Amino acid sequence: MTGNSHLARGVAACYNAAMKPAFRCPVFALLVAFSWSVAPLQAESWHVFFGTGGPGARGIYRATINTETGRLRPAELAAEIGSPGFLAVHPDGDKLYAVANFPGGPGAAGYRIGPDGSLAPINTAPTGDGGGAHIAVHPSGKFLLTAQYGGGSVALFPLDAEGRLGTAKLSRHEGGSRVVANRQNAPHPHWCGYSPDGRFALVPDLGMDGVVIYRVDLEGPTIERHGFAASVPGGGPRHMRFSPDGRFIYLLNELSLSVTTFAWDAAAGTARKLATVPALSEAVMAKEAFNSAAEILVHPSGRFVYSSNRGHDTVTVFRADPATAALEVIQVQPIRGAFPRNINLTPDGQWLLAAGADSNTVAVHRVDPETGELTYQTRGVINVPAPICIVFAQ
């Protein structure tokens, strides 16, 4: 293996963990500073896994992407299971977890990833509180969390040394802002992830209009409620990401199609609200029958943020100031598909993949390293049944 290949694997492994957000990697932070001035790394292929949920979908699908050309190979079924909506890769990179439906009730399922991208079942375990909307493995690899939108809870599943799921422990959310009728009358946890140092778990709750913050105890492992960061009234928090340096949070508001930024105090485990920027104008949204924000990403350079807009079927590109987290909309890019419930960046930050849940497509867009703007790749579309999640593994 060449030196460039070793470097690429190191950057990608750290980036994968950092973007969950779940881990702070000093090697990653150093390499980001140099990544835009060094010669391109040797092209590699990554496994791409697709979580699905809808008509025609049979489970988890997989493909590969070439990092030099952005070319996606046709997708094939990797694991047959009911509605594996969201996926998460273990920090070791050799295991994949999904929220899904199976005999015994909805819960989490684990798989071992083969060198060829094949998936071998490990085990399954029910949440005991309905289906999960999101899943995230702690950087220690000792447990994972799932967020139950309908049940209003967070489930902690211990993981043993082989990656087997243990019995779920539930933490329930309470209350609702009631600003938006029928959507905010009760708690609706929609995402789960971790602070860069792994000391805290953060769970945006659409019904509560804020982020519930938990303190992590690895000895249990357990989580204990620590605090709450309020977002904008009626915003409906859905997903969030940390900046690469861990100083800021970018929170996506599903109902208002906006991004609220926070300054993160790593020592105290608190978030201070800074500003809110709309992803689409009121005039643009007025022309659509339906509007809803779905996913948010932060580029590894820290200079660009991306959010997906369902209804308008676009990705909003923001220029981000790494020093202040200030955002400015610079592009609104059609995804070349319908209903982008999920988007994701390749580990090297060169390509953005957009999943059209209603069009049964995944489209590839090149990321301009200087401006962050997106360019759709001609013939850069493959078919995947009802794709609603995209993750990468090597």
Architecture overview:
It is a single chain. This protein is mainly beta and 394 residues long. The chain has a domain at 43-77 and 283-394: Methylamine Dehydrogenase, Chain H (7 Propeller), CATH 2.130.10. The chain has helices spanning 3-18, 26-34, 282-286; strands spanning 45-52, 59-66, 76-80, 87-89, 95-100, 107-113, 119-126, 134-137, 143-148, 153-158, 169-172, 193-194, 200-205, 210-217, 222-230, 237-242, 248-253, 258-265, 270-278, 292-298, 304-310, 314-320, 327-334, 340-345, 351-356, 361-367, 374-383, 387-393. The strands form seven sheets. The chain has a four-stranded antiparallel beta sheet with strand order 3-2-1-28, with no helix packed on it. Strand 21 (304-310) and strand 22 (314-320) form a beta hairpin. The protein starts with a helix and ends with a strand.
Q: What percent of residues are in strands?
A: over 45%
CATH topology of the domain at 43-77 and 283-394: Methylamine Dehydrogenase, Chain H
Structural classification: mainly beta
Distance between the termini: 15 Å
Spell out the blueprint of helices and strands.
Elements lengths: L2 H16 L7 H9 L10 E8 L6 E8 L9 E5 L6 E3 L5 E6 L6 E7 L5 E8 L7 E4 L5 E6 L4 E6 L10 E4 L20 E2 L5 E6 L4 E8 L4 E9 L6 E6 L5 E6 L4 E8 L4 E9 L3 H5 L5 E7 L5 E7 L3 E7 L6 E8 L5 E6 L5 E6 L4 E7 L6 E10 L3 E7 L1
Antiparallel strand pairs: 1-2, 1-28, 2-3, 4-5, 5-6, 6-7, 8-9, 9-10, 10-11, 12-13, 13-14, 14-15, 16-17, 17-18, 18-19, 20-21, 21-22, 22-23, 24-25, 25-26, 26-27
Helix pairs in contact: 1-2
